[in-house]
Amino acid sequence: MRGKNSRAAAVVLALLLLVLAQVGPTLAQRSTRPKATTSPKKSKAQLERERRTNLRRIKETSRILEQTQKQKQASLGQLNALKEKLTVQKSVISTISSELKYLESDVRQTTTQVQQTQQSLAQLKAEYARLIYASSKTANSYNRIMFLFAAESFNQLMLRLRYIRQYSEVRQKQAAQITSTQQHLSSQLTGLTEKKQEKSTLLTTQVAESRNLLTLKTQQDQVVTKLSQQEEGLRQELAERQQAVSRLDNLIAERVRDEIARAARVARAAAARAAAARATKATAARSNPASASRPAESATARTNAAPAAETPAEEAPAERTDRVTLTPETAVLSTSFADNRGRLLWPVSRGFISQRFGRHSHPVLKNVIVENRGVDIQTSAGEPVRAIFDGKVLTVASIAGMNNIVMIQHGEYFTVYAKLRTVTVTEGQMVRTRQSIGTVYTSAEGTSEVQFQVWRNSSNLNPENWLSRNR
């Protein structure tokens, strides 16, 4: 009887070793299996932020467009607002398409992960079933005791005891892993459902935005058609604008020349005062009796002071006619302004560039090229206009076609704000960044637009290279 029990225990031991040999590698493979790569969440988050930003811009542009549509007659301001809204609408659709690609990739990857988890779960259950079957062979505690005491030596007894313990541990691990895998599978299925719902919502949004795009294109075509019927009025408006631009250019050039000459005069006067002070000091040193005891020092002082006293004009810096002569304070301000290139504040808190810098085709008139010294920023009626950087108000003026003008100096840089309805600063006043300098002018057609320019001495610069991308 004892021989039979020993042989049965040996068979069970063999089965147990076989199961352990199969389960061990399976657990190792499962633990080292590479996880499926997920979509870069950061990029997806950036896309979502971009979509929210574009939707906010659409709301702002819609508000500006409504103000231009209050007038019965079509206008360039209305056309510019429609173009901007159309451009942003296309960006929204493009962003949604990119988000959908991420979601489709997520859905595919999650589906693959669900299938892999289901396969792993089925394999775990099959392995656990084999363990249970093997366990049933030794369910009788008497068989286990007989199996242990059938050992031929103490070492064999300890080895068999260790096998029994390993068998119990593996079964517990299998049960725990099955539970964990089931929970993971449930979480994956929930995430898959959420992603599919999000994808469905985005698809619906994309369809709606595409319809809005078609509506905007129709409105744009209608406005272009109406404006084309007003060619004579548009040409007259263009001629008046060109005259106003010419007057503004002349004003800016005159003020820059005046500032260059003024700064040169100040520099010469400062150099002359410094030379006179050195000459006075040298004269006082020569007339001091105590200087006789220091002949070498006095001789050196006379040698250094004599040229300044005889030719004070030579101490003055050469007068510059092409750029502003900077003092130490204005040099720091000028350098700070240059260092903030591409990060400067917008002159208005909301709006869009309705006409860009440089030469470009007229939006309606064929074969007509217009040139812009700065950028036109279309915004809401009554919008405050603010200084983009610290500086000194150099000029406050009024020009026909450009309304009120404010010119602010930042060392050797100048910013110009035109088409202002009101002005709240005066010439010579020091202003700080974000300080309000006036409000935007609204034309008879309902277009609220500010003309903004950036200059370095007599050189005209592209403001878009200086303004921040974020308002």
UniProtKB/TrEMBL annotation:
It comes from the Bacteria. Residues 65-134, 224-254 form a coiled coil. Residues 45-60 have a biased composition (Basic and acidic residues). The keyword Isomerase does not apply. Residues 280-315 have a biased composition (Low complexity). Residues 28-60, 280-322 are annotated as: Disordered. SUPFAM superfamilies: Duplicated hybrid motif (SSF51261). It holds the Pfam family Peptidase_M23. Keywords: Coiled coil, Signal. Residues 372-463 form the M23ase beta-sheet core domain. Residues 28-40 have a biased composition (Polar residues). Residues 1-28 form the signal peptide. This is Peptidoglycan DD-metalloendopeptidase family protein.
